[in-house]
Amino acid sequence: MKKILVIGGGAMGSAFTIPCLENKNKVSITEPYSKNFIKELSSKKKYHSSLQINLPKKLKFRKFSTNLLREKFDLIVIALSLKGIDFIGKELKKLKIKTPILVLTKGLKYEKKKNKILTISEQLKKNYNGMNISVLKGPCLAKELVRKNQTSVIIANKNIKIAQWIGNIISTKYYIIEFSKDIIGVEVCSAIKNIYAMIIGAGQSLNTSSSLFQKSIIEMKYLTKYFKGKELTTLGLAGVGDLYVSAAGGRNSKMGNYLGKGFTFKSAKKKFMPKDTVEGEQLVREIAPFILKKINKKKVPLMIKLFRTIINNKKLILR
Ligand SMILES: NC(=O)c1ccc[n+]([C@@H]2O[C@H](COP(=O)([O-])OP(=O)(O)OC[C@H]3O[C@@H](n4cnc5c(N)ncnc54)[C@H](O)[C@@H]3O)[C@@H](O)[C@H]2O)c1
To answer: Which end of the chain is more exposed for a tag (fewer CB within 10 A), N or C?
Structure first.
């Protein structure tokens, strides 16, 4: 039995506690940001409004504080959205703990000063001297995980033994874990698939979407290699695996569908998805300045077309 702290009481952080608890670990969850999640997780019933279930009674809610991070945990899991990474990086920097960290967050960050794209683990390592960071990615809708639908995900760490140790304490019959040393490839794929899910969603027939799917994989392979990940990782769970689930049903492909129907990004967002976070859009705004400057546009034509649509609010033309 290990002591696990999950930081982030959103859909994914909360869902992730289910396999952890099932493996007889002592699991605590904390929420540093959202009043709504704090209210729900600290209530007796632990009803989670995005997951639409009562979370297990065994799950312990802890108020977020720097002192909480100082307590002895065997594993700290970060399940905040990309916006929370700077915050948690600063919190962890204050401490000199060596606790292994597992990151569920997907995304990339553009560091303007160095004109460099950083993965989340690179961004955290910059701040957090412990360096013991693994990432978990792959096709895993939070809503399906809480219902114990079988899925496979991948944990990456250059030190594969640490990844395997984490896998051992969290895997269940329905939560199957693979391992990889290619931490950069896994992180790049899991972030850019949100952009390609939008592109595939824009296809207005299965035929069109299928050909966009195939072209998306070629671009993902190119980008993964460019950022020094392994091309083959694109064909794994963090790449094609996660792309399928995002393209088949998710907020990115839903937005893509509106773009494919001829709506501009702003009008589709306002009309159909005013309260939804579209992670692919956020990533476009984050990485476009770098990609447009540094990358051969002919190698990623679909991505460039989506940039134009989102940044300049133009109609999406994929032909
Ligand atoms: N939902 C899924 O099925 C799923 C699956 C796999 C991975 N993920 C990844 O997990 C991450 C979280 O996704 P989610 O679905 O739980 O999102 P969510 O919106 O349900 O929760 C977001 C979490 O981030 C916190 N947060 C938001 N803005 C913050 C800020 N400025 N500072 C500090 N904390 C902040 C929120 O309070 C909450 O804990 C994302 O990166 C997502 O890609 C989600």
So the answer is: C
